[in-house]
Amino acid sequence: MNQKIHGVPMADRSVISVHTKPETSKRLAKLAAATRRSKSFLANEAIERYLKEEENFVASVHRGIADADAGRTFTTNEARKRMAAHSGKKTGHTAS
Fold this sequence. Notes:
This protein is about 60% helix and about 5% strand. The chain contains three helices and two strands, in the order E-E-H-H-H. About 0% of the residues are buried.
């Protein structure tokens, strides 16, 4: 039998266990009922979104570190000037 969950074959799925606060569990159950989705589906969607966001953040940090290591940095005053030029506004700041 080739059983599927949300269009994905069972063989391609993994099971995890999550401990959470009772209030979070109640909120998840309430949302599942309201959306007519399973708690598992909603939890998986939330995990996928979180992972995408965190992976993007970590990648950005690594790019920033690489830029700093390569000397691609600006003083505060230089950054303000670049931001002002980009937005078409004057910063009014003179200290760096």
